[in-house]
Each structure stands twice: as structure tokens, then as C-alpha cells.
Amino acid sequence: MTDRHDINLHINGGVYRVSVEARKTLADAIREDCGLTGTHIGCEHGVCGACTVLVNDQPVRSCLMFAVQAKDKPIRTVEGLAKGDKPHALQQAFMDNHGLQCGFCTPGFLMLAAGALEAKPDMTEEELVHVLSSNLCRCTGYHNILKSVKAAAVEMAKAR
Asked: Are 138 and 80 in contact (CB under 8 A)?
């Protein structure tokens, strides 16, 4: 018999009541149990960053966190960035500055950048490069990703 845990996952302002095995990752719970497939799973070892979400407003590799560890904590996924039909400044900047190519890494970069810029809106370019270097883009779109995040930082500062 499998040991299951009934937990609440607070994602993007909604509550998802799920029953998970203790070993189920947050990434798998978000995708499989909550139906939010914007969070991508890449390496499953915490290296690529495609699965990055915000937990307690901090970027987290959801493939390395168990769902039970996220119980009752605020979680934000890429689906929670836009406000209705209006894209988040980061999403708009990625579209405007060609910050996505195949798009696989994009949700992880968006969430990483959102967490970083919300925590420290006035990051220098050097700091942004350092933060963004923790995620991988296999299409080598780093230049346009950085350009997009810098453009979004300006728009996010205006909105404050």
C-alpha cells in the first residue's frame, strides 16, 4: 500500500486539494494533479531550471522539491504571471525582444526573472547575468533573454 498525503497546494491564488505520495515532486504534482502544464520538466536533476516556480516568492526548482514540502505555501507558476488577457511585463518583453526560441526553457526563465526582479528591482546587468546563468537555454538565446529581462525590469519599475 502506498503512503499518500492529502495536502493543499496554493497555486496562483487558487487552492488545489491533492493526494500525493511522499516522493512526488512539486513539478509532477503541479502538472499531473493540478493540470498546470506551463511548468516544464527538463533534466529532473535541478540543473536546467525549466521547472522553476516561485514558492514563498523565491525561485525554486520544482523537480527538486517534494509536493508535501510545498503544502500550504504560496506557489506561483508561469500561468499566474498574466493578469487576465494582459501579459506580465516579462512575458511581453520576451515576445517583443525575441527572448524565446523553442520556448521550452521560457517558463523557467520567466519565473526566475520574476522572483529576482521582485526581490531586487534595481539589479545591475552583471547581477542579472549571474541570476539568469543558473538556467539553461539549449537554443543559445541568452542574449535576447537578457535583453528581454532588462526591458521588463524597466517596465516593472514604471508600474511600481
From this structure: no
- Taking the domains of the chain in order of start, what are their residue ranges? 4-79, 89-159
CATH code of the region 4-79: 3.10.20.30
Say how many residues make up the chain: 160
- Domain 89-159 adopts which CATH fold? DNA polymerase; domain 1 (1.10.150)
What are 121-158's pLDDT values in tens digits? 999 999 999 999 999 999 988 999 999 999 999 999 99
**Digit-coded pLDDT (tens) for 92-114:** 999 999 999 999 999 999 999 99
Rg, C-alpha atoms of the chain: 16
* Fold: same for 4-79 and 89-159: no
Which residue is it, cell 506580465?
Answer: 88
Distance CA 55, CA 2 (A): 27
- Provide the grid cell at 99: 527572448
Position 1 confidence tier, pLDDT thresholds 50, 70, 90: low
> 3-state SS of 56-98?
CCEEEECCCCEHHHHCCCEEECHHHCCECCECCHHHHHHHHCC
Are 90 and 118 a contacting pair, CB within 8 Å?
no
* C-beta atoms surrounding 144 within 10 Å: 18
